[in-house]
Structure formats: C-alpha cells, structure tokens
Amino acid sequence: MRDCPHGARSDLVDNFPFMRPRRFAEETFIGLGFSAAALFLHSLFWRNAGPPWRDEIDTLVLAQTPWPQFFDRMEFSPFPAL
C-alpha cells in the first residue's frame, strides 16, 4: 500500500476519483474562457437589439394609465390584458 502525495492511500484514490489532486490551472483557464465567451455573446446581443416593439410600448403605456381609464384603453390595445 503506497501513499499518495496528499496523504491518502492509493487504493482509496483509485476507488474515489474525487480524492485525486485537481488541476486548478486548466479548470481556471476553461472557466475564464467560457465566461469571456458568454460576456462577448451577451454584449453582441445587446448591441444588436432593436427598439421595443409596438405591443411592448403599448403594455408600458397601459400599465401607467389610471385605473378608471384602464378598461377603456384596452379596446385599442393590440395585445389586451386578460
């Protein structure tokens, strides 16, 4: 029975892979790469996003109307609230 560098027995390390020493440099590099790709795609999406559509603007306007006029304005809404 030989000892591993971090003090665990070799037969335990062979049976339980989570006890093996980890490669932090590789995992960090991969994690930073995926994070950078996600940030790039996120910024690309927001730079190319267009203005709000007609139903989105109408929903905002309808949400700001006083309660007594709410149902009167729903008649002209392209996407009426249920």
Could you please describe the fold and organization of this structure?
With 82 residues, the chain is mainly α. The chain folds into two domains: 1-49; 51-82, no CATH class. The protein has helices spanning 10-15, 24-48, 54-64, 67-73. The N and C termini lie far apart (72 Å).
Task: Give keywords.
mainly alpha; single chain; 4 helices; 82 residues
- Give the number of helices: 4
SSE pattern, N- to C-terminal: HHHH
Count of all domains: 2
The biggest sheet, with number of strands, parallel, antiparallel or mixed sense and barrel status, is: none
Radius of gyration from the alpha-carbon trace, in angstroms: 29 Å
Give the total of beta strands. Answer: 0
Percent helix among the residues? 55-70%
Shape descriptor reads elongated
Instruction: List the uncertain runs.
Output: none
Mean pLDDT over all positions: 77
Brief characterization of the structure:
The chain is mainly alpha-helical. It has helices spanning 10-15, 24-48, 54-64, 67-73. It has 2 domains: 1-49; 51-82, no CATH class.
Write the SSE topology.
Layout: H1 10-15, H2 24-48, H3 54-64, H4 67-73
